[in-house]
Each structure stands twice: as structure tokens, then as C-alpha cells.
Design a protein that fits this description.
By secondary structure, the protein is of the alpha+beta class. The protein has 24 helices and 11 strands. The radius of gyration is 26 Å and the shape is globular.
Length: 572
Amino acid sequence: MKFIIKHKVSIFLSLIVILGCVLRFWNLAALPVSLNWDEVSHGFNAYSILKTGMDEWGRHFPLIFRAFGDYKLPLYIYLTVIPVYFFGLSAFSVRFISALSGVLAIPGIFLLTKELFPEKKIIVWKYSLPLEIVSAFLLSISPWHFFISRPALEANLALTLIIFGAYYFLRFLNKRSSLLPGLIFLGFSMQAYNTARVFVPLFLVITSIVLSGKGIWQLVFPKSNKLKNILALIIFCSSLFLVVSQVYSGEGSARYDKLKILSASIVFQIGAARSQSNLPPIIAKAIYNRPVYFVSTAIKNYLGYFSPAFYYQTWGAQDQFAIAGKNLLTLPVYLLSILGLVSILFKLKNHKSNQFLLIWLLLSPVAAALTSDPPQALRPNPMIPVLIIFASFGFAFLLEKLPKKFSEIIFVIISVWIIFSFATYFYNYNTEYKVKYSSSWQYGYSQVMNFIKDYGSEYQKIFITKRYGEPHIFYAFFTKLPPQDIQPGGDNIRFAKSDWFWTDKIDNVYFINDWQIPKTSVATLPLESGGDVSTAKSLLVTSPDHVPVNAHVIETINFLDGSPAFIITSVP
């Protein structure tokens, strides 16, 4: 008992980490219900690096991965080489790094909260509970963090790096550590996810100025220069230089070009609105122009990330990043985070920890606000740890302000409410969500590819519809295709078109536009790259809407809600 009392914080933290580990690793390969194309792309490129030292496009150890033309950042893929080496190419190995990152974020937020509020505690039944334990527990059962920790998401890896980077940077500002570990973590985060490439530099500059009254240059180079600080700056600037060079070359901005607010269609609409306006030309030009549209849209997007509609995912929810209509934090934690934010706002002056958190919160949605999508749950994920800390602070604040005779019962009620809310969310995630949204996860591809592995050799050619996106990478992944077969020089047809990279053929497997598969009798099928291919004695995997009359249906693969996904047929 004395040992338990003496080490109660470490014991509590260990139990919380175990809980977080179970929640994030349990049935990881099967939930979410299938790998999506980004996860499969991560996995196969890691497999290709492991086997050949090249990505799927034959580039030796690239610092950014072309993939489909979306140019994926490198860190997650290179780290995935490790689980692929030990566990083979599988759903578990692809998701391993994200799940592990989700677990490591729990001790990360523990350390960060402890550095921010070392003396803050919740007192219940004459026992003190450090605020960092509350933060760690809330993060371990946070629906938002739980959800993004299970798929293979670079954003989740970047978030964990940001948490540890912010912790060490705060220690540096408090003169308790060197700058080196903080800038290493933050520098690596910029090679994991694009949001970090905006958030991290802004965060470093603004917190340095506000919290120290100096610029980051004066912090790094005081009167007596420190070698570790110089090394830290070199490492961080190297990462920053890589970001700038990739943006300059176009590879680093390729993803944003597809998400930017001022797309070609929007620019056309602005011009049309100006020409159709009844206002005087000079006023119409002042109202309908690209700068005004960009700024107004970015502000609307930014404010949207602080709205209840965002936290309840009732506006623009993307099914692969959250459950529509479910609170990202659970209602009790959401309310506690608001209470914590309000209480901190009243104590900003001369409270550096409060200023640190507020800067973090305000900068978190900046990158997401600059994209065209309505508020979605992945891009602003740096908000997660700061909102969890706010909720912990709000919980402590509430119990402090209540009369002692009520505080204990309120503690129990809120704790049970939080646990019950997450349990409800977890049940929904394992039941209704996976059934209703299996199509969002491109469910059915693994079943198709397993069928091809078993019976594909019986046919001269195999045709697969492109209806659900990028079938070639699923074929390569699930058949464990030798990377050389898909790299340049292999028996394949791969080409660039409309700012994207397409694949029409790998060996005797062809990938066909769904709308070009006729419902009438089929004898040949056209390739997007040009030319027609005979379908004689072939296996055709098509959608329910495009089954040729002369095709014999072998098997139907349904989404989990019972609707048909793929129709596997043979063509004589």
C-alpha cells in the first residue's frame, strides 16, 4: 500500500496508457472495416522501399512520394517500413504507426500538462489528482483522438510529434531544457503532415515573441551561444528548407492545388458574378474579386472550426475522419473545455501557460481554413490536445468553485457521464458506423483481390473497374505484387493526365473506367491511355450498374449495408 501511495501517479499513468493501447490496437486490422486507397498507398510504398530502395515510381529513397499525384509526405511511409518488415504487408502493419502514435500521445499530453500547470490538482475525498493525469485519461478516451489513431493517418503521427515538440519547446522557454529535442520533434512533424508545415513555424515564432518578449533568433543565440541550440536550429532549418524547396518545385503544393480556395471553377464563378452584377462596374470589381473571396472564405472557414456544428460534425462531415452527428469530444468534455477556456481567458495577463495554450488554439485551424472543404476533423487536429487540457482545467475549476459538499458528487456524475459518453461512441463505431459507411472505406477491394489471387490464373486477362478509385494499388497491395512489376520498366501502362497519375495495366490486369463498360454485349474494352483490349476468356470485375449481358455473374460482393459493391463476372 505504501508503494502504491508513493507511486500512485506513475501507476495511474501506466493504467491509462494500457487503456489507450487496448482501445487503439484492439482489432486494428478490421476496424476501420477496410483499408482506403491512401492507407494502401502508404503500405505498398513502404513495401517497395523495403524490397527495392525505391518507391512505386522507381525513385530512390524519395523525400516526397508521388503516389497518385498527391505527393505524400515521407515520414509515415518510412516509419511503416519497420512494421512491414516484422509483420509483413498487411492492414495491421500499415496502421501500426498511427496506433502507436496515438498511444504515445497519452504520456506526451501528461508531460505537457505537467509542464504547463505543475501545481494544479483536483481534490476529491481528501485525495489529490494531478491535472496531468486527468488530461491523459481524457485523451485516452477522446473520440476525436481515438478515431484518427486507428487508420493510417500521417496527421496523427504529426500530432504526437507536435505534442512532444511543444513540451520540450516550453521547457526551453522555461529554461529547463535545451532547444534541441523540441525542434527535432517539430521539424519531423513538418515531414509528416501538411498542416504542421503551416502550424509549426507560426507557433514557434508567435510563442517566442509573446512568451519571452524576444524573437526566436535572440532565444537561440543569447550572448553565450550554445552548441546544442545551434545544432537544433540547423536541424529545424533543414526540415524547413525541404518544405520550401518542395513547395517551390510544385511537389509540396500539389495536394493544396487540389484543395485550394481559389480553384479554377471558383475563379470562373467570381468573374461571372462580377459580369452579371447590377452594381456599377467599379463597385462590382471591388466586391467580386479573388482577394475578397479568398479572405472572406478563409475567415468563414476559420470561424467554422469553433462552431458547435463542427464539433458535432453536422456540417461537411467526412466519413473517413469522424462519425457524422457525433460530438468529437463527447458533450461533457466539450462543455468542460469551454469552461476551461473561459476560466483561462480571465487569467491571461502574466500567466504564460495560459497564453501558450491560447496561441496554440488560435493557430490550430489556420491551415485547415485555407482549404476549400467545409470544416472537417482531420486538418485542424492540433486542436485536440489543447482542448483536452482546457477540459481538464475546466473540470478542476468547476470543482474548486463548488461547495465541498457538492464537489464529490459532481465529480462522480461528470466522470460517469464522460465514460458513458465514450462507451456509447465506441459502441456506435463498432456497429452502426462500420455498416453504414463501409463504402467510404472502399470496402470490397480486399475480397476482390483475394478472389483474383485464387482464380485469376484461370483467365487470359483480368479487367477491374475504376469505379471506386485506384484499383491498381489495391491489386498491388493485396497480391503482394513484386514492386518491380509496377515500377518503370515493368509490364505496365502508367501515365500522367489532368494533374494525376493513372494506371491502366499491370501484367495481364487492366483497369477500366466504369462508364466505358457497356451493359450490352462486350467484346473489347477501351483503355484511358488509348487502344482497345479484347475481353475474350477474361475475368471482369465491374460495378452493379455496368454488367454486360454476355458476362456470366460468378459472385457479388456487397457493402456491409447489403448494397452491391462489385460484381465478379466471366466473359467468354
